[in-house]
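Case study B.
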Amino acid sequence: MRKNPKHTSDAKQRLMDAGLDLFGKFSFDGASTRMLTNRAEVNLSAIQYYFGGKEGLYRQIVRSIAVEVGSLVKPRLNEIEIQLRENPSPEQGIELFCDLIDFLIGQFLGSPRTQKWLSIVVREQMEPTEAFDVLYDGFLGPIFDCCFRLVSAASGASENDPEVRVRTYALMGQLLTFHISRASIRRNLSWIDYGEDEVKAIRNTILGHVRTVLHGNGDR
Amino acid sequence: MRKNPKHTSDAKQRLMDAGLDLFGKFSFDGASTRMLTNRAEVNLSAIQYYFGGKEGLYRQIVRSIAVEVGSLVKPRLNEIEIQLRENPSPEQGIELFCDLIDFLIGQFLGSPRTQKWLSIVVREQMEPTEAFDVLYDGFLGPIFDCCFRLVSAASGASENDPEVRVRTYALMGQLLTFHISRASIRRNLSWIDYGEDEVKAIRNTILGHVRTVLHGNGDR
DNA sequence: CAATTTAAAACAAACGATTGACTTAATCAT
DNA sequence: ATGATTAAGTCAATCGTTTGTTTTAAATTG
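Model:
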């Protein structure tokens, strides 16, 4: 119908930005519609107008996270998938896994924008709503599937082996802590935030662990 | 005031049990006073009567977590502290650290009661209120301080070395994931819950990682 | 009876949602 | 081009509900 959408506004995007911030900080119940519209500097009824309600806004934000993170991560996963088809050696598998972790650390600990996503993702992990499926299908599942295959390639065991999967979760858990335990870490290391140096320190440590573990995985 | 304590009710305890469940599941804002009193099967006004309000109930619950977990964990930490005074070898440091992790896994992944605590603790970690200080002083701080010393003993570096602390957080992060990522893990491993076998598998993997990492910590 | 708990009703404030008036911009018949 | 029409977007006012809290009265206990 509309040929020239010149008349369209940015209220929609402003609400989604505000929601990403406030839902992340205060959770769904903790962020009220008035909070959201004040932060976005839009009228109270804009939420109903654009998203059909508070829940619709939340769903839309989660969907956009899934799409954005998915398209950020999937090209990298596809590259790895291709290299996995050529039956890489354990050594090569380890390095591919380390590259991926390196990439994920850079994306999710370094950048302030992707940090905001994580709070919502973690909340959905702890107490899943229907939104969790969107996140899982969008990028959580693909990332973990790829990790399983990489750890499998590095260790020789099947990617369906529960041991491989538990090992993968444990290794990936090293990343998660640095997002969740920010409050503790600030105290213990007197870091104000994760700057370039801090991310580098975290990256070195985690990659060191991953290499050590996967190289010596036969010693149990 | 109260002459005969036999007359005292269990309404107080029932409210705290309900709060532990519901605050953990739905967060502070998500759990309403009516939810809480219905679950506890007490009158609505009991929250004000016993705790001075919803926030008072939350504070009391957090305080009780801090005390209970603290008294559960501190004897173990003190034992370790004593053994640390005798300048243990790196090998001994590693085994002490593994014993502690083993203990923590058993307590926090195995037992359903302690699982409930973790949700509240994680929430406070991600977005700290004043309650975080109570938890930190009660057990989070002591646990991490002890872990720092153990990793220091295992690696030779100072316990104040940022590298030791980052390494410690990374290693401990392996535990945290298995609480937070329950939803993902259920899908990937088709585990219904963490039974005896599942905890054993997690324990073996994590302890294997810790030993491998701390034994080969010079290879970077 | 007197002191202490419970039960139910009522409270103001905040919640998410809805309404209808209003402005702005694109469309179309003349 | 002009003026009427329609659609898109904004806004203040207000809706009915639920929130946490308070009040009032009845019940229970020693």
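Chain A touches chain B through 57 residues (CB under 8 Å). The remaining cases will be described in the next quarterly update.
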